[in-house]
Amino acid sequence: MNYFVDPFLDNGFLQRALFAGVLVSLTCAVVGTYVVLRGMAFIGDALAHGVLPGVAGALLMGLPAMLGAAVGAAVMVGGIGLITAKSKLSNDTAIGLLFIGLLALGVVMVSSSRELTGDLEAILFGQFLGVNHAELLMQSLALLIVVIVTVFASRPFSLLCFDSDLTRAMGYQAHWYHRLMLFLIAATVVVSFQTVGALLVFGMLLAPAGVGALLARRIVTMMLWAAAVGVMSTYLGLLASYHFSWAAGASVVLTAVTIFFVALVGVSVKKSLSGLRS
Amino acid sequence: MRIIIIMKIMNRNKLNNLAIFLIVGALASVAVVACGGGESSTSPDRPSVVVTYSILGAVVSEVAGEAADVKILMPNGIDPHEWEPSAKDIETLANADLIVSNGLDLEGTVMEAIEEAETKGVAVFHATDHVEVIEFGASGLHNDEEVGPDDERDHDFGDPHFWTSPVEMAAVVLSLGEALSDLGINVADRAAMAAERLINLDQEVSKIVKSIPADQRILITGHESLGYFAHQYGLKVIGAVIPSLSSEAEASAGQLAELKEVIEAEGVRVIFTELGTSPDVVAALASDADVGVVELSTHLLPEDGTYSSFVLDLASTISGALAS
């Protein structure tokens, strides 16, 4: 029992990390399910990187990092819209261009500034063990917003996952709901980068939701699975970080991805077994 | 696409290479056009000496005086573990008569450019070749085993932060004098004088450290950067937030919890942090363990630009925090 519980009871920083990880997991479970179902992984990844120059700029100007991240995400989403509207280039070309452009800008800003020394890694890989109460509050707020928006827009969101023409036929403005979804992804990345890091939040968006998509058919069930896997990964990852002295954020994401592959193998084995029986 | 993850896995050097490739590649064309004029800054009569970072640079300038054109590669105060050279910096290295580096992996990627310059015939002086290198145990704890200057094999685990001890710096200064005279400038007297000043500095620091009560002579630092200082002045480094010689490693829950126990067991009252250590993680640890946080400038040359005030600042900050 001690092995599994005591580390958290004895260390305040681990309690806060666990709490933050649970909040990130729940937010990512809801948003990530749509990301996985709609094949939006690339833009999720791009957003996770695109916030870098925004964060760097905010830190240089002494503004909250989250504000910078929000600006970075807005530039990314707006830029993609602009490129696809003004040219015949495909969506993924637009995403790729902005992604690498913003990432390079961020690296130039961080590497040429004395004040930002050491921050590049902090932004990309997070400060899981340095979470404070204000950040926890911010994450709770983000979770609340994500859940409320999703509840109200659940029907058009579900339709978007399967057929955008059908969404239109049902009388919904498909592109507005698409943007709303982008906003949710951006919001998730923006509030989560401080804990798990801009990069690893992407892992938390994909891996638990991927498990959900493997195991369930209904969107709500997928989200519940994703939430369970995310929370489990946070706990097991932090425990591994404690007992094996692994980097905290990476341990959590590694656990989530491992669970995904275990689930994948489990599902395949089950399928081939039932195939044999019939 | 997943550049950063891959880069992280491949290790930092490759990350730097890729980042340099991406950014320098984009900027190089601009730089070539902009700097078409070329090398007007180097005067032909004085040999050009390039030093990698500012603290060592201050000492080299002191020894060389007006006899050489001393250039410092990294901006003062930047974390040398993280810094990446630009295309122009690599050109500066290639055109130098002598490169003075710290060695022992402190400079990370710059080392490749230095080796490249060395193959083209540029003389290279690694300061840590002339230092009693403190070995850094793989366990994450210091042991006091010392490795002689000739023992190249062990340098991968050698602690590069020798500049926190003026005694080691004095040894470097004497050898540096010889390396400079190989360039055809005679600075033997200046080197001897500089070494003497460093020995005096050492005595001053000893006095400052004496004001710390014996039971408080324990240090917890950001990364493992005070090994030489501690060794020289009878302090003990009992832990680090990032138990690594480089600021690049990341904190783990296990190490942090261990450190918290050490803090409580030893009655530590203050954690020293520095450039490159995550302030959030230090703040979280400090509030949980109920200790103070004091920032040290282990990689920053003070405003007057002298090595002696760097060492004195370091010593008085440490003793002030521990004695209070």
What does this structure look like?
- The longest helix of chain A has 30 residues, at 248-277.
- The mean pLDDT of chain A is 87.
- Chain A has helices at 2-10, 12-38, 41-61, 65-86, 91-111, 119-125, 133-152, 154-162, 164-169, 174-192, 197-215, 219-244, 248-277.
- In chain A, 85% of the residues lie in helices and 0% in strands.
- Chain A has 13 helices and no strands.
- Chain A has 278 residues and is an all-alpha fold.
- With 324 residues, chain B is α/β, with parallel strands linked by helices.
- Helices cover 46% and strands 15% of the residues of chain B.
- Chain B has eleven helices and ten strands.
- Chain B has helices at residues 3-10, 12-34, 54-64, 87-94, 110-119, 166-181, 188-210, 227-233, 253-266, 279-289, 307-323, and strands at 48-51, 69-72, 98-101, 123-126, 133-136, 142-147, 218-223, 236-242, 270-274, 292-296.
- Chain B has a four-stranded parallel beta sheet, with helices on both faces. Chain B has a two-stranded antiparallel ribbon with strand order 5-6. Chain B has a two-stranded parallel ribbon with strand order 7-8.
- In chain B, helix 5 links the parallel strand 3 (98-101) and strand 4.
- In chain B, helix 1 (3-10) packs across helix 2 (12-34), helix 3 packs across helix 6 (166-181) and helix 7 (188-210) runs parallel beside helix 11 (307-323).
- The longest helix of chain B is centred in the first third of the chain and has 23 residues, at 12-34.
- Chain B starts with a helix and ends with a helix.
- The chains are: A mainly alpha (278), B alpha/beta (324).
- The A-B interface holds A 7, 10-14, 16-17, 42, 45, 49, 96, 100, 103-104, 107-108, 111, 114, 117-118, 120-122, 124-125, 127, 129-132, 199, 238, 241-251 and B 1-5, 8, 19, 22-23, 26, 75-79, 82-84, 247-257, 260, 275-285, 287-288.
